[in-house]
Specification:
With 214 residues, the chain is an alpha/beta fold. The protein has eight helices and seven strands. It has one domain (2-209): P-loop containing nucleotide triphosphate hydrolases (Rossmann fold), CATH 3.40.50. Strand 2, helix 2 (43-49) and strand 3 form a beta-alpha-beta unit. Helix 1 (15-28) packs across helix 2. Bound molecules: adenosine-5'-triphosphate and magnesium ion.
Length: 214
């Protein structure tokens, strides 16, 4: 079973958008997907409730109470997390995933805030021992904005976490989300650019680089 968590203590960085996109991607690949929502706002479960019944099925679990069981039969378990996690709650979350994706908005405030957060993740025992692997994604990037240069300026100290992709700002995510769909389920001609930007994320998730070092 693969376990993937989307995490950033900063609100509104795209955690739920990315968690639901990953869940729908693997569901459309015929995998048995479990979407665990740790956020009491339950955006991911709301998304799932809007999902048309004819689409590849995804099982939702409300993780906000802390007590739930992950069925062994799942191929993928995707965790969406709330904003402002720290301390004991963050430690409890970090016991679960093999792979952690941190979405970061490309604004100076968000990038500055992400630096100590990512550093804390990298120093956490399981991550430091490479039992859980971290990757960063820039999200809601305006076109022609040199996000890699900007991220480099702010996140120089955390080079150990790879930057795997920059997702553009587009209404495609908003439209897909309101219908309970992922970006992968919109008409291909609308999302060609987005799929190109997702390609390195999927490749990372499907590679050994995102999995515990054995
Ligand atoms: N690449 C994108 N392009 C356009 N809109 C986006 C993109 N990514 C996310 N959004 C929108 O930004 C808003 C915040 O995204 P989302 O809810 O995924 O963030 P979050 O990190 O889960 O927020 P919270 O911390 O409140 O849980 C949503 O309205 C979402 O539709
Ligand atoms: Mg959310």
């Amino acid at each position: 079973m693969r376990s993937i968590m989307v995490l950033n203590s900063k609100g509104g960085s795209g955690k739920s958008t990315i968690a639901t996109s990953i869940a729908s991607y693997y569901a459309t690949q015929g995998k048995k997907v479990l979407l665990v929502d740790f956020d009491s706002q339950a955006s991911s479960l709301d998304w799932l409730a809007a999902r048309p019944s004819g689409r590849s099925s995804i099982t939702g679990i409300n993780g906000a109470g802390g007590h739930f069981r992950v069925p062994r039969s799942a191929d993928y378990v995707i965790y969406d997390t709330p904003a402002a996690v720290h301390g004991a709650e963050l430690s409890a979350f970090l016991r679960r995933p093999q792979s952690i994706i941190v979405p970061i908005l490309p604004s100076p405030i968000d990038m500055r805030a992400a630096t100590p957060f990512v550093q804390k993740l990298l120093d956490y025992g399981r991550v430091a021992r490479k039992e859980a692997r971290v990757a960063l994604i820039a999200n809601r990037c305006r076109e022609h904005y040199n996000v890699y240069h900007q991220l480099d300026t702010y996140l120089r100290k955390v080079r150990k976490a790879p930057f795997i992709s920059a997702l553009r700002e587009t209404q495609n995510y908003v439209r897909a989300a309101e219908r309970g769909l992922g970006i992968f389920e919109l008409p291909p001609y609308l999302v060609r650019k987005d799929l190109d930007q997702w390609d390195p994320i999927i490749r990372w998730l499907n590679s050994k680089r995102s999995q515990p070092r054995t």
